[in-house]
Design brief:
- The protein has 3 domains: 47-173, Beta Barrel (Elongation Factor Tu (Ef-tu), domain 3), CATH 2.40.30.10; 186-310, Nucleotide-binding domain of ferredoxin-NADP reductase (FNR) module (Rossmann fold, 3-Layer(aba) Sandwich), CATH 3.40.50.80; 325-410, Beta-grasp domain (Ubiquitin-like (UB roll), Roll), CATH 3.10.20.30.
- Strand 5 (110-117) and strand 6 (120-127) form a beta hairpin.
- The chain is globular.
- Helix content is 22%, strand content 30%.
- The chain is α/β, with parallel strands linked by helices.
- It has helices spanning 12-18, 22-32, 42-50, 132-137, 152-160, 197-205, 230-238, 267-273, 288-300, 347-353, 388-392; strands at 55-65, 71-75, 78-83, 89-96, 110-117, 120-127, 141-146, 166-173, 186-192, 214-221, 244-250, 260-262, 281-285, 308-310, 325-332, 335-342, 372-376, 379-380, 395-396, 402-403, 407-410.
């Protein structure tokens, strides 16, 4: 039953006369207060923890993982086991400078590292392979790198990143994480090669959370020796009470043996391994070519795009593209400079080679940090996540755009 409120109105004269009492009352309140300045600001402290900007870090430890080496597996902050991982793989543990704290992140997100290469400042994204609680409890993150032949930057990192080296990192970035209000309780993860790092983070996080309720990981590798975190992933699945299932899919001679499926990962394989695939969400991480082929397989299964989550995989593959050289006129403030650019490399790559690296995070057209104005010229930008209004206004993402003519480009951020 509703209650009635009784209000007594004294009139404006009483209110006006009462005003003369306020200065005396206010002075009394001030005299009773604490004379010391209160500098505590919990809201600002929380904001700084969540959005801490650029963080100087040191590489604390480099773990070489291969058939002739051993690596430590972290289990709730202590050494749990000594195992052998795939060949030519390294994990870098990054810890911030004294007095600084890493921001919180979701399992599956990535960080952006800024470093110098041959006198030029560049930025690269790296998936965080450690669980979120490592950043919260131990103030560290881990990234994992596999050695790739024919990749000059990969070789540079492999040869020059040592324990004690300083880096500048920013995190977290990316939308490749589980959300209960968006994704199904059962997640089917599909990973290629070293891109399994995001799922390692998710599986570790599942020990303390129920995000997601269940995870089936289809892990594609050429051979058993190329399978990163193989023993650890199997061990984590074994103690998960059935919540985690890891299916190794190989294309080498070992395929078809006990516990190993023969690749490639296609619609028929998914239906055989995941009976409830129609009700699951699909998280996919791999190269652009891998993701393109996988998208077609999911289309054939009737999996809607609303139930797919894709990790940033870089610009899409170029098919039958002849190499030509164009000129890019770069405008930054009042400065203007011309740089050469090949039709087979992204605009961002051409600027980086010329020492004009722009600020970027994902290098796949997703994050919009490198958003620039295309004043004149034409670019090819397949799948780049430029918003419709930006596209109408002539903006592009240089990290995922290829020149198709001479360009005039206005950039707004520089490293």
């Amino acid at each position: 039953m509703a209650r009635k409120a009784h209000v007594s109105v004294k009139g404006y004269v009483a209110d006006l006369l009462g005003w003369f009492k306020l200065p005396k009352q206010r002075s009394a309140w001030i005299d009773q207060g604490n004379p010391n300045l209160d500098t505590l600001d919990p809201i600002m402290d929380l904001a700084n923890r969540l959005h801490s900007g650029i963080i100087p870090v040191l590489i604390q430890e480099v773990k070489e993982e291969g058939p002739f080496a051993r690596s430590y597996i972290e289990w709730n902050g202590s050494i749990w086991a000594l195992v052998e991982e795939g060949p030519c793989a390294r994990s870098y543990i990054l810890k911030p400078a004294e007095g600084q704290h890493l921001p919180l992140h979701y399992a599956g997100q990535y960080l952006s590292a800024k470093f110098d290469r041959e006198g030029r400042r560049i930025a690269r994204p790296f998936t965080i392979s450690s669980g979120p609680m490592s950043a919260f409890e131990d103030n560290l993150v881990k990234i994992t790198l596999m050695k790739r032949e024919g990749d000059p930057l990969n070789a540079f990192i492999w040869d020059t990143w040592k324990a004690g080296m300083a880096l500048d990192i920013e995190l977290p970035f990316g939308n490749f994480y589980y959300s209960k209000i968006r994704d199904a309780a059962h997640v089917v993860g599909i990973a290629e090669g070293a891109r399994v790092a995001a799922f390692r983070s998710m599986i570790i996080d599942m020990q303390k959370t129920r995000r997601p309720e269940r995870l089936t990981l289809l892990y594609s590798s050429p051979g058993a020796e190329d399978t990163l975190f193989r023993d650890e992933l199997n061990s984590l699945a074994g103690v998960s009470d059935g919540r985690v299932r890891v299916c190794h899919v190989l294309s080498g001679a070992e395929a078809g043996s006990s516990g190993i499926e023969k690749g490639p990962i296609n619609g028929e394989l998914i239906k055989g391994l995941v009976p409830d695939y129609r009700e699951a969400s699909f998280f996919m991480s791999g190269s652009s070519a891998f993701m393109e082929g996988l998208g077609g397989e999911l289309d054939s299964l009737g999996i809607s795009t609303t139930r797919r989550r894709t990790d940033v995989s870089g610009p899409g593959p170029l098919k039958d593209r002849k190499e030509k050289t164009y000129t890019i006129t770069v405008q930054f403030g009042l400065e203007e400079q011309q740089v050469p650019a090949k039709s087979t490399e992204t605009v961002e790559a051409a600027l980086e080679k010329a020492g004009l690296a722009i600020d970027t995070r994902c290098r796949g057209g997703e994050c919009s940090w490198c958003r620039s104005k295309l004043v004149t010229g034409k670019v090819y930008a397949q799948g780049a996540g430029v918003r419709a209004k930006d596209r109408e206004a002539g903006f592009i993402h240089p990290c995922a755009a290829y020149p198709e003519s001479d360009l005039t480009l206005r950039v707004f951020t520089r490293l």
